[in-house]
């Protein structure tokens, strides 16, 4: 019974992947470097990948962006990859404990939260205090009218928001706890929300659509971005070189422009 | 005696069935059975399940209220541009739900087409449970309309014509002849709509947001839980599968020999 | 409750005018696809005529606003009983009264009465799925009558029934149609004879003949009426004691009714029974001889009906065998002049 099911599964996989194989078979046999990176790194890593390809003749850097937890899960399920950069250390640590990284990850950038408000700041938000719904402060009733959107505590940006509220001593009552920073930003740029807690790099990337309001206490809740080469990498040397690029002066410059802090 | 099917058909048919069933088997194999009670019993999970059931029921009612008249108009009248209208109305069937969510946002959102009017009326749709119901209705409505329009066309107009000559006004004909005749089609359409609403994710997160007990439905909760607690996500998925199977099962029982 | 109907439906090429007097049953006869059902649809309000008017009981139904079917009180009964499958026989019959606002109990009582009237009171609790064709049609008749129609429209109500159940149902119809204004579409001579006071014959969308049933069937002037009445007919002009057709056939006969003058359009009508069949033309007898080719043979009572185009002859089985008749065989149809009725068309 079990063997029959397994056989059927194999036949099925064969049938379904047979078609897909046709699409990827035609690739040149140049060297490929597969880099998985957190979604917030997309613009910076695209720049760095181009730089890497320029200095490494015949190397093709394939970038794949997603939520940190998704990327980690993909590696755990055996997706082929050479380098992984996540938006927090907690998710990366899951791979370290399973021995799936090649050596210890290194932090290459930091990011802090900022308040993003729609262009023109319709609700007139000045800082976290305006969003405090704690009963002790007099601002409570006004804060009720401001629609704040944050990340859900389950995802790194949401965990950071919770800690930020603790550090700042405010009580936040968001109308929505979104899946990702992109979702938070989307609610702010569309004007649905009056304010959102996102990373300073997101505010910068969003351009004129949103305005950033710095939160002083954010410096105490720093998000660290680790990068690591993966144990299953077929291109370990190249992978290490890519990590060096990220950690080096070029990487620093590119990340700095995007708003990332130094570790 | 049936004429039978060509034997070779069985191979792709079995392959197709396996393609649908194996992933189900795979997820059930991953269920952490010992903890399943605690995982599903958590406040967040219970809230999500209850919200999902309530919003799906509400959107199914809304689908029936709006979709039955739509199907009747599409099946029983003809007017210029009807074909185009039908295609457009069924668009959510093929539209990625996220696009549907964006479209709703641009319509009912604060800065949307109707947003200012709604604001003046004191109605704020965004981040409310009503927004979830709207997103679900948007994606589920075409299922009910398609299914019912088919039933109406199959039933034909002959009974309705006879009823009219017997002196029944159009409303009486609709209530006492049309509706009872297409009841099975309406039931399966409603079940499809409910199932679609239950599984709705993309439009909800885009349009309604995600807050426990208010807008965070089962699919959203599963997707979020996956970030931190893969086991919990699997357990919740199981709960959703069970609910879906129950709904389809009940609908089947209601119609002996009937297929969805 | 008189009906005056004049209607032109261009895309079906129908242009018909007819009247049904109060309490009268008029049968619409005619070949398939000739517009009979179109006429019923116009009367019921299911089809808007391009031109024309329908007046029922002095009420204009085709004014600027077409009176809708439900406001006409013209119950329609078709070949298919079309009982509502989700209702019992009793509920089906009660449907008309209920639609007219009669309370449930009263409507049911009335429905029971009508079921009894058509001899179907024992079927009250059954669903249509559990009724035979004849039973369903009885219930359908009761349902149409229970709606208290000013005009009853019957569209071949017995066409789909077994030969075995049709006669009983025909008797029932005869009883309940008594005194009702009815328009009946049929292709069956028995329906016309038993149920209709008058017949209107349609051909290709036009009225070709009308009159009291017995008269039309006895002295048909249209080919279709002759066929329905089971009579041979040759149409032509009266000349030198015979009706001469365009194709050269001539049938001698004795004129009846108004005197015919030479060259008048006339028909010669004779029964198949009066025709003798020969392999070779008999010489010197005072009979009309028509050279024909056998197209078909069919049993007809205890005789054999020999068809040759639009003519027919009835011979004994013995004679048919002796003559070695078969389709394709050339024969001569002979008929005595005294057996041929000639009258103006």
From TrEMBL, chain A:
Transmembrane segments: none annotated. InterPro entries: ModA, ModA/WtpA. It comes from the Bacteria. Keywords: Metal-binding, Signal. SUPFAM superfamilies: Periplasmic binding protein-like II. Residues 1-20 form the signal peptide. Pfam families: SBP_bac_11. NCBIfam families: modA. Belongs to the bacterial solute-binding protein ModA family. This is Molybdate ABC transporter substrate-binding protein. It comes from Nocardioides oceani. The lineage of its organism: Bacteria, Bacillati, Actinomycetota, Actinomycetes, Propionibacteriales.
TrEMBL record, chain B:
It is found in: Cell membrane. Residues 49-251 form the ABC transmembrane type-1 domain. The keyword Magnesium does not apply. Keywords: Cell membrane, Membrane, Molybdenum, Transmembrane, Transmembrane helix, Transport. It is a multi-pass membrane protein. This is Molybdenum transport system permease. InterPro entries: MetI-like (IPR000515), MetI-like_sf (IPR035906), ModB_ABC (IPR011867), NifC_ABC_porter (IPR006469). It comes from Nocardioides oceani. NCBIfam families: Mo_ABC_porter, modB_ABC. The chain crosses the membrane at residues 9-33, 53-75, 87-109, 121-148, 177-198, 233-251. Pfam families: BPD_transp_1. Belongs to the binding-protein-dependent transport system permease family. CysTW subfamily. Its main location: membrane. Part of the binding-protein-dependent transport system for molybdenum; probably responsible for the translocation of the substrate across the membrane.
UniProtKB/TrEMBL annotation, chain C:
Residues 283-344 form the Mop domain. It holds the Pfam family TOBE. Keywords: ATP-binding, Molybdenum, Nucleotide-binding, Transport. PROSITE patterns: ABC_TRANSPORTER_1, ABC_TRANSPORTER_2, MOP. The keyword Oxidoreductase does not apply. The keyword Ligase does not apply. One of its GO terms (molecular function) is ATP binding. Residues 1-229 form the ABC transporter domain. PANTHER family: SPERMIDINE/PUTRESCINE IMPORT ATP-BINDING PROTEIN POTA, SPERMIDINE_PUTRESCINE IMPORT ATP-BINDING PROTEIN POTA. This is ABC transporter ATP-binding protein.
């Amino acid at each position: 019974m079990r063997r029959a099911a397994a056989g059927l599964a194999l036949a099925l996989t064969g049938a379904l992947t047979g078609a897909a194989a046709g699409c990827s078979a035609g690739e040149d046999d140049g060297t490929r470097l597969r880099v998985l990176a957190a979604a917030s790194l997309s613009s910076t890593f695209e720049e760095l990948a181009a730089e890497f390809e320029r200095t490494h003749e015949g190397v093709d850097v394939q970038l794949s962006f997603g939520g940190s937890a998704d990327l980690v899960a993909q590696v755990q399920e055996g997706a082929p990859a050479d380098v992984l950069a996540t938006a927090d250390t907690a998710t990366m640590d899951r791979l370290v404990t399973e021995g799936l990284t090649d050596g210890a990850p290194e932090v290459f950038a930091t990011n802090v939260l900022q308040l993003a408000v729609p262009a023109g700041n319709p609700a007139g938000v000045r800082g976290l205090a305006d969003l405090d719904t704690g009963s002790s402060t007099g601002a409570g009733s006004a804060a009720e009218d401001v629609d704040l959107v944050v990340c859900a505590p389950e995802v790194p940006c949401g965990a950071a928001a919770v800690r930020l509220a603790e550090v700042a001593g405010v009580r936040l009552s968001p109308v929505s706890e979104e899946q990702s920073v992109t979702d938070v930003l989307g609610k702010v740029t569309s004007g649905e929300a009056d304010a959102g807690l996102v990373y300073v790099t997101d505010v910068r990337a969003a351009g004129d659509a949103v305005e950033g309001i710095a939160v002083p206490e954010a410096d105490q809740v720093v998000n660290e971005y680790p990068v690591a080469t993966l144990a299953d990498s077929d291109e370990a040397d190249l992978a290490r070189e890519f990590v060096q690029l990220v950690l080096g002066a070029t990487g620093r410059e590119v990340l700095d422009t995007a708003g990332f802090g130094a570790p | 005696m049936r004429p039978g099917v060509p034997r070779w058909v069985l191979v792709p048919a079995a392959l197709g069935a396996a393609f649908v069933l194996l992933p189900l088997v795979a997820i059930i194999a991953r269920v952490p059975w010992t903890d399943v009670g605690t995982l599903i019993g958590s406040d967040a999970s219970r809230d999500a399940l209850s919200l999902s059931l309530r919003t799906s029921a509400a959107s199914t009612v809304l689908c029936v209220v709006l979709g039955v008249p739509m199907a009747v108009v599409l099946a029983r009248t003809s007017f210029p541009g009807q074909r185009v209208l039908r295609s457009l109305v069924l668009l959510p069937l093929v539209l990625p739900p996220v696009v549907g969510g964006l479209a709703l946002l641009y319509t009912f959102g604060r800065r949307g087409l109707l947003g200012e009017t709604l604001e003046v009326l004191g109605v704020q749709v965004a981040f409310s449970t009503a927004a979830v119901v709207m997103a679900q209705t948007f994606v589920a409505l075409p299922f009910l309309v398609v299914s019912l329009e088919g039933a109406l066309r199959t039933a034909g107009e002959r009974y309705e014509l006879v009823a009219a000559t017997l002196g029944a006004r159009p409303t009486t004909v609709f209530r006492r002849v049309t509706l009872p005749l297409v009841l099975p089609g309406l039931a399966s359409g409603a079940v499809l709509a409910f199932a679609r609403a239950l599984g709705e994710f993309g439009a909800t997160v885009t349009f309604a947001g995600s807050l426990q007990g208010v807008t965070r439905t089962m699919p959203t909760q599963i997707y979020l839980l996956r970030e931190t607690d893969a086991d919990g996500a699997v357990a919740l998925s199981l709960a959703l599968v069970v609910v879906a199977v129950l709904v389809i099962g009940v609908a089947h029982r209601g119609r002996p020999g009937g297929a969805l | 409750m008189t009906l005056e109907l004049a209607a032109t439906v261009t895309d079906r090429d129908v242009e018909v005018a007819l009247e049904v007097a109060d309490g009268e049953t008029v049968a619409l006869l005619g070949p398939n696809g000739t517009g009979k059902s179109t006429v019923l649809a116009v009367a019921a309000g299911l089809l808007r005529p391009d031109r024309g008017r329908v007046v029922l009981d002095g009420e204009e139904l085709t004014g600027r606003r077409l009176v809708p079917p439900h406001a006409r009180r013209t119950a329609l009964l078709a070949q298919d009983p079309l009982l509502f499958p989700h209702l019992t026989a009793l509920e089906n019959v009660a449907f008309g009264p209920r639609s007219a606002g009669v309370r449930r109990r009263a409507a049911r009582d009335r429905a029971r009465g009508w079921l009894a009237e058509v001899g179907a009171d024992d079927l009250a609790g059954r669903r249509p799925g559990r009724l035979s064709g004849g039973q369903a049609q009885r219930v359908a008749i009761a349902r149409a009558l229970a709606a208290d129609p000013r005009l009853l429209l019957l569209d071949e109500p017995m066409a789909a029934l077994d030969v075995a159940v049709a006669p009983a149902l025909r008797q029932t119809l005869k009883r309940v149609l008594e005194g009702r204004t009815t328009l009946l579409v049929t292709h069956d001579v028995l329906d016309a004879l038993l149920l209709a006071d008058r017949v209107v014959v349609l051909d290709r969308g036009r009225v070709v003949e009308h009159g009291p049933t017995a008269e039309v069937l006895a002295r048909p002037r249209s080919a279709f009426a002759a066929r329905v009445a089971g009579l041979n007919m040759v149409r032509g002009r009266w000349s030198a004691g015979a009706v001469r057709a365009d194709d050269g056939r001539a049938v001698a006969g004795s004129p009846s009714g108004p005197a015919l003058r030479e060259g008048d359009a006339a028909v010669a009508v004779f029964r198949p029974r009066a025709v003798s069949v020969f392999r070779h033309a008999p010489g010197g007898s005072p009979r009309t001889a028509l050279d024909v080719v056998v197209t078909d043979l069919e049993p007809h009572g205890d005789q054999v009906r020999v068809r040759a185009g639009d003519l027919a002859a009835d011979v004994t089985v013995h004679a048919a065998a002796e003559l070695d008749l078969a389709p394709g065989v050339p024969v001569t149809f002979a008929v005595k002049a005294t057996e041929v009725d000639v009258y103006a068309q």
